[in-house]
Design a protein that fits this description.
Structural class: alpha+beta
Strand order of the largest sheet: 1-2-3-4-5
Radius of gyration: 17 Å
CATH superfamily: Tgt2/MlaC
Number of domains: 1
Order of helices and strands: HHHHHHHEEEEEH
Shape: globular
Distance between the termini: 18 Å
CATH class: Alpha Beta
Number of helices: 8
CATH architecture: Roll
Largest sheet: 5 strands, antiparallel
CATH topology: Nuclear Transport Factor 2, Chain: A
Length: about 220
């Protein structure tokens, strides 16, 4: 069975990652010509304000946050690319049905786990308005790809570097990986999934993700 330990490696900053990824989704249609950095800067403030506004409701019913995440997050992150990268070399040998099932279950797992993590965090903490510092651009991979550098200043502890890899899909910027303090979230999942795949194959991995989604749904 896939253990929750792989979540523990990443969960500390999943909360902040989610806040910014959620933020990036809101203005893509309204500001199609904006650069990825501009989108992140303008909308991270909007999303933080929204979280503060709805925090009392989220505390009463964490499922409210899941609905927000599911509706806002998934359309604006390139989940097919994330799933393909997380599955690694096994993507090529998977059938189309297996690819679709894996992408669906992996997406559901991310959304549910992040929602519960964020709801738990919000139940205990306030997110400072100045939590995110945008670092001047150092990399521009190509007109279709961008790497955005930020630094997160938590209420406690040392600042953490969080970098976002984006690319254009049908003219819209979408996140396909997040690097937290030097650790790629996609690579971390790929490492764990690789072990599971060796033991049980892709159908076994899909079944395990489905089982964890059922458990998280009841949490």
């Amino acid at each position: 069975m896939l253990k929750h330990s792989y979540h523990a490696r990443l969960s500390v900053w999943h909360v902040v990652v989610l806040v910014i990824i959620l933020a990036i989704s809101l203005p893509v249609v309204a500001r199609p010509t904006a650069s990825p950095t501009t989108i992140l800067q303008q909308t991270s403030d909007e999303m933080l304000a929204a979280i503060k506004t709805y925090q009392p409701m989220i505390k009463k019913d964490p499922r409210y946050l899941f609905i927000i995440v599911n509706e806002v997050l998934t359309p604006h992150v390139d989940m097919e690319a994330v799933a393909r990268m997380a599955l690694g070399k096994h993507w090529a040998s998977a059938s189309e049905t297996q690819r679709q099932c894996f992408t669906r279950e992996f997406t559901a797992l991310l959304v549910r786990f992040y929602s519960l993590s964020l709801a738990e965090y919000l139940n205990l903490h306030e997110i400072p308005q100045d939590v995110i510092e945008f670092i001047p651009a150092r990399d521009r991979l190509s007109p279709q790809n961008s790497l955005i550098h930020t630094r997160v200043h938590p209420p406690r502890g040392k600042p953490v570097d969080v970098n976002y890899s984006l690319h254009q899909v049908d003219g819209k910027w979408k996140v396909f990986d997040v690097n937290v303090d030097g650790i790629s979230i996609v690579s971390a999942y790929r490492s764990v999934f690789s072990s599971e795949l060796r033991k049980h194959g892709i159908d076994g991995l899909i079944a395990t993700l489905s089982d964890q989604n059922r458990r998280l749904q009841k949490a």
